Amino acid sequence: MNIRxxxxxxxxxxxxxxxVNSNAQFLSQELAELGLSVYYHTVVGDNPSRLESAINNxxxxxxxxxFTGGLGPTxxxxxxxxxxxxxxxxxxxDVEALESIERYFTQTKRIMSENxxxxxxxxxxxxxxxxxxxxxxxxxxxxDGMIYMLLPGPxxxxxxxxxxxxxxxxxxxxxxxxKIISRVLRYFGIGESQLETDIQDxxxxxxxxxxxxxxxxxxxxxxxxxxxxxxxxxxxxxxxTEKRINDRVGEFFYGYEQTTLVHELNKLLMKxxxxxxxxxxxxxxxxxxxxxxxxxxxxxxKGSIVSYTNEVKEQILKVQKRTLEQFGAVSExxxxxxxxxxxxxxxxxxxxxxxxxxxxxxxEGQPVGTVFxxxxxxxxxxxVFKLNLAGSRKGIRxxxxxxxxxxxxxxxxxxx
Amino acid sequence: MNIRxxxxxxxxxxxxxxxVNSNAQFLSQELAELGLSVYYHTVVGDNPSRLESAINNxxxxxxxxxFTGGLGPTxxxxxxxxxxxxxxxxxxxDVEALESIERYFTQTKRIMSENxxxxxxxxxxxxxxxxxxxxxxxxxxxxDGMIYMLLPGPxxxxxxxxxxxxxxxxxxxxxxxxKIISRVLRYFGIGESQLETDIQDxxxxxxxxxxxxxxxxxxxxxxxxxxxxxxxxxxxxxxxTEKRINDRVGEFFYGYEQTTLVHELNKLLMKxxxxxxxxxxxxxxxxxxxxxxxxxxxxxxKGSIVSYTNEVKEQILKVQKRTLEQFGAVSExxxxxxxxxxxxxxxxxxxxxxxxxxxxxxxEGQPVGTVFxxxxxxxxxxxVFKLNLAGSRKGIRxxxxxxxxxxxxxxxxxxx
Lengths: 416, 416
Description:
The structure is a homodimer. By secondary structure, chain A is an alpha/beta fold. Chain A is built from 14 helices and 17 strands. The first copy, chain A, has helices spanning about 10-15, 20-35, 50-60, 80-85, 95-105, 155-175, 190-205, 230-250, 260-270, 285-290, 310-315, 320-325, 330-345, 395-415, and strands at about 5-10, 35-45, 65-70, 90-95, 120-125, 125-130, 140-145, 145-150, 180-190, 210-215, 220-230, 255, 275-280, 300-305, 350-355, 370-375, 385-390. Chains A, B: Pfam families: CinA, CinA_KH, MoCF_biosynth.
């Protein structure tokens, strides 16, 4: 069966440009992974006659139509009503959905107005897709071999509904025996083209799992997607491919899925029971801001000195005047002293420092992108790393912080 | 004439979910401002027969069709060719466009391959829209009262092309004599619903300029859009409405267009020749990071102490042990001492401090969202502000920093 899918988003706010159609992007990715071809996206306003004509158009050219939006309680929400009319199928109350809506109001201690009941109306004969993050349920119905799926508009409701129920509906409906499992591997410290070159033969020779690289914000991710009717075997296929890849580029691998370098650093500091403080020049507090963005940061982070001027480096951080005069603020020596000083002043196990030229102008004669990162861990000698980064002021600052986390993770993994 | 506009994006990468259709959002906003109604968005892949059917569909229901994408040099780029076929209009070489493409290669010192010439082909009789940021020109053509506009896919080329040439084409073509001028007013410290309530009668009674409120990240913006054939009068209409609005809510107004609170603070510190330093607890370095994100920050920002633990507050920031014991770290007294200490230690004109409970747990018995911000400006008494913020950990931190900038701007505006 040749499946031709169309995604119809319903909502005047899209046609006014108030929001972007991110739902269509999300669903397109999901459907591509399921192996369903998407041929059209359509956006239509909250207007019954134009929606009707969009549905009739879609019926001519597609055999799976996925709608987003227009399932809410207001009179503008008319997706179900219009589809019901076009298909000649009644709307009926779904008891479970109605109970769930009533429960939602009880839990959030609000009064339920009558129009909310409208959200429990479903197209007769449809399979209900539960809404775990809102009130309006979704639904899917097969009429004469055409599949219609209705999903809510807010991405926070639509995405989990599709992931948890919509995807499975299609797999069952279309008789896909295979479970589809994805795993995202995250890398830092290696460029996208280098990583691709290093594993090109694996990517090329590989169909299950497939391997899709993506670069963003100085990081590279690989998305592995395996299909198999036995979920354990799909997992095993992922494990094997991950191992083959990381045998080559494992030194740059730092975590799975949506994790971040600073999150991995945080976990590792907790695990090792170590505390950290920072002395930041070019990064201006960004490392501290990142690490304190996580709950429970006070267990591992004591504080920092943002020494943006030499005066603060000398007078608060107590870097020796001689060091600044002899080597300059952007130097290995200054970085080392900054890291050691912050560790001592804050009585932390680890001190990390960042000094460099973020641009747009060179700093103390050092070209833009020159960055020194020092890590002081007590008895051992401090480690100092020099970077030559390219890009914007913001890009240089962000990547400096990420490199700092990357080096810390490496060093922490080496100690007891 | 009732204008029904449709935007057709051409590109398989959209149907695979690799990119989001931000072009449709941008154009929808622009067209709404021009007063053109958008009835449909369509996305179709790089497939001539499906594009052909999308064009035929659009011809039935719309009288302005704007295409994005498919104007490039590769064989996948087939928008012009398909439209040419559907409309029965030849493609001809545009001499100026060809010269411009050749110039582009000369300037970027690259060799021009033959297929690049294809980009200079235009639909016979069209008005050329210059591409100032790429090679493929856009075009617009009126055939039997239907307007077809073709724009490139990359937003970096499409947006300036529409802003600089496309908009004017429509204004001239549709006989709009009016210049359309927008102005964005930015507010902080007032909620969207409060601001709307305060000026509801102005919004309701107002058609030129129109007033559109929008809330995001704890800020509210008002977009005023005036139309008049005389640009000076349009500006005057904007000035008058701005004055009427700010007579009521001016205390919350902080700037125009894309500016930020920290940017306004930075400008003001430069203008007044003042330096600043910060003592940050709950914000963890975010204020420092924001202020150092701007070029030239070292002229006004000396540094900061991120005192995430009481130990650092005492030992580096030199807050008295007694203050912490008697009042706690989340207190007016502690905030005041933090601000005064950082000002003295860093020898800055101004010290600002942030202490509070960002969550998810209460801090020292203070409920999540309790925040104290103190500003010390030397001889004067310090100002301390108490906030009770709601929202996520991140939201509380971001809004604390914004409130800090907001208070600083107010205080700086009061001094010489």
